[in-house]
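Quick illustration, no need to memorize.
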Amino acid sequence: MKEKKKKYQYAALALGVVTVAIEGEVNDWTAYIGKTEGKNHYKESFEVARHGTKLPYHIAKNIFPEFDELFKWRY
């Protein structure tokens, strides 16, 4: 059985500050923020997804409005 590729998006808020939105398992989503070296935000975003701090919903929905339209927030 082929596994569905989950929706994933990152946004650099400043040099070395990255946010990541990730689709969950049950039509939900969450977002994380973290400090990075700022050398390659794309590569560093995966580390933020694993070890970042979860963003509050009221902030995450403004950074990633398309996720908010597609999925429910994971509390």
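The chain has one domain: 8-73.
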